[in-house]
Amino acid sequence: MDRLRAYEVFVAVVAKGSFTRAAETLDTSPANVTRYVNELEAHLATRLLNRSSRRLSLTEAGEALVERARGILDEVAETEAIASSAALSPRGRLRLNAPLSFGMLHLAPLWPRFLARYPEIELDVDLIDRVVDLVGEGYDLAVRISRVGSQALVGRKLAASRNIVCASPDYIARRGAPAVPADLLGHDCVGYSGAATADEWHLVDGSGRPHAVKVPCVMHSNNGDTVRAAALAGLGVIWQPTFLIGDDLRQGRLIPLLPGHRMPDIDVLAVYPSRRHLSAKVRVMVDFLAEAFRGIPPWDRA
């Protein structure tokens, strides 16, 4: 059995939802398509597809295999292109992971332009608020709002985002505005539980002297949008990055606090596994994102 051809046939059947349509796509006969799928199932000693007169569906084993088979086919295509030409054309499926809020606000508007520029790339975007295992979970690239961390990954800085301590005008009218970090001890705060320092907020003053305050929190959330919504409703003082609250600051819905003090900036990074060949599709995506966020990033403009 030509296993690579069998994978190609199997992936085509899943994509088209039909043996007949897969045969048309591959320019072969339905009998050949059936033979390849049967041989693959026999080789693996498991059923990959549930067949009925009306539809096909993947078994659990089929679901596990189809993603891996797609990756194998993509890697073979890229390897062949490298061998035949010094200029590899960006193509194939690109799996990208990013945090939920950043992905919705700042990446989603970019995808039509990216796909228009690179029509042979199939974009698969997962928005997840956790640090994924790029290699183990099959991602080509991730956008992270953090330091690179693992030395097993390569990172390219795309932009920076400021962290701002702020509250709504309504809250400030009721409770007043803290002038120095220690004043936060007398205020209601909303904590972001996704931060490594939890309820201890770290700031520096104009001379670079650090200030750490264990703030009293009336609420916690691991989601920045929820923290933002609580502040807009007047629940308390928060800190969040400008990529999330930049418009609120510009429109006066949130007011910056603690003049003369600031939190350290955070980086927006593109990270990818260093031990794998950097394919053309990953390279053009990293370059595209770097171009999109070049200079003053959109969340800090005006």
Describe this structure in words.
The chain has 302 residues and is of the alpha+beta class. It is built from 10 helices and 15 strands. The protein has helices at residues 3-16, 19-26, 30-44, 60-84, 100-107, 111-117, 169-175, 224-232, 242-251, 280-292; strands at 49-51, 56-58, 92-98, 121-127, 141-145, 153-161, 163-167, 189-192, 200-205, 210-214, 217-221, 238-241, 255-256, 261-262, 266-273. It has a 5-stranded mixed beta sheet with strand order 4-3-5-15-6, with helices on both faces. The protein has a 3-stranded antiparallel beta sheet with strand order 12-7-13. A hairpin with a 4-residue loop joins strand 9 (200-205) and strand 10. Helix 1 (3-16) packs across helix 2. It is elongated and about 75 Å long. 29% of the residues are buried. Keywords: DNA-binding, Transcription, Transcription regulation. It comes from Inquilinus ginsengisoli. Belongs to the LysR transcriptional regulatory family. Residues 1-59 form the HTH lysR-type domain.
